[in-house]
TrEMBL record:
This is Nitrogen fixation protein FixU. NCBIfam families: nifT_nitrog. It comes from Sinorhizobium saheli. GO terms for biological process: nitrogen fixation. Pfam families: NifT (PF06988).
Amino acid sequence: MKVTIRRTGNGLSAYVPRKDLEEPIVEVENESLWGGFVVLANGWRLLLPELPKDTRLPVTVEARKIVDEMLAK
């Protein structure tokens, strides 16, 4: 899914246009942000692509929503 990552006055946020959803990013797996997962305030976990550490924000990327294995069974 397409996700726009941007910096706000309160930190980072993610906007998902298809859902018209914007949520703060409350947890990041990697300090550089890219190539790991982020957790949104609503509980969604998104896997972000590998990008250079100095990628400028805002940026729109193709992210994958991670579903807990327990819920998928």
